[in-house]
Amino acid sequence: MNLEQARELRTNGHLVSAEILPNPSKSGGWFLTILDDTCKNYLLVDDQEQVITVATADEILMLVREIGLRTVSIRLG
């Protein structure tokens, strides 16, 4: 799911929750998962369908704000 689709999902009231997770690769970083009202999980991806991973939690929180979310869960490990 790209950023625009995530915004639309939230605007239409179909976004249930979001969770920030650490990237499991050795390079580190963070990525975002989104759960819709049909209990389907999505990864936030860019225009090339690559999972968006960022270096810091602050950067991923900026994406969360762009979607318009007010709450998010963060898993530390």
Sheet with the most strands, sense and barrel status: 4 strands, mixed
The percentage of residues in β strands lies in 25-35%
Mean pLDDT reading: 93
Q: Could you tell me the radius of gyration in angstroms?
A: 12 Å
Helix/strand-derived category reads alpha+beta
Q: Please provide the ordered H/E string of secondary-structure elements.
A: HEEEHE
* Low-confidence sequence ranges: none
Protein architecture, described:
The chain is an alpha+beta fold. The chain has one domain. It is 26% helix and 26% strand. It is built from 2 helices and 4 strands, in the order H-E-E-E-H-E. It has helices at 3-11, 57-67, and strands at residues 15-22, 30-36, 41-43, 73-74. A 4-stranded mixed beta sheet has the order 3-2-1-4.
